[in-house]
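Exercise: predict the structure of this protein bound to iron/sulfur cluster.
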Amino acid sequence: MTTKKFIKKVFFIEILQGLALTLKHMFSPAVTRQYPYEKREAAAGFRGLHALVRDKETGAAKCVGCGLCAAMCPSQCIHIYTIEGEDHKKVVDRYEIDVLRCVFCAFCVEACPFGAISLTEHYEYSDYAKDAFYMTKEKLLLTWDKYMAGEKGEEYFKKFWRPMSEDFIQKIQNAKFMPTCRHKGG
Ligand code: SF4
Ligand code: SF4
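Solution:
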């Protein structure tokens, strides 16, 4: 044992250092928040409850029922049911999310090329019944109206989840994938 270690042991230096730290914090203001009376604002881009985005002009859901979000969802908790509408157009009849299975990874938001689904700042939705966590299209649209409508929703997509379709815009002089240049028989 070195002299330094010996002195530390004999004079309880480390214990005294620990006690000094405790004493120091005893007189500093508490940092604990008295939730739910004191709440902290959710950080922008927070991954809370899902919402289906409404089209600004028509007020209808932006979702076209392509199913990309459901395909990307690692929990397989998104269920989409489409029907044939007027002029043989695909119409989203039901869009449902089993929130109890969701891991809030936001892959669904990333995968959507239309910016039609978002995660909101809302996280206080505890309940006693399982049904309350099965989100239907109507419930998801209401969540959008309540928490993300207007500038807030626009800002969310601009800052955090810019629709991926923008990534496919060809930039001048950028290298481009040319299928005809591939090696034959390679
Ligand atoms: S956040 Fe992740 S787990 Fe939840 S619905 Fe979206 S893709 Fe699925
Ligand atoms: S990826 Fe977007 S548009 Fe396609 S089904 Fe999901 S939410 Fe709807």
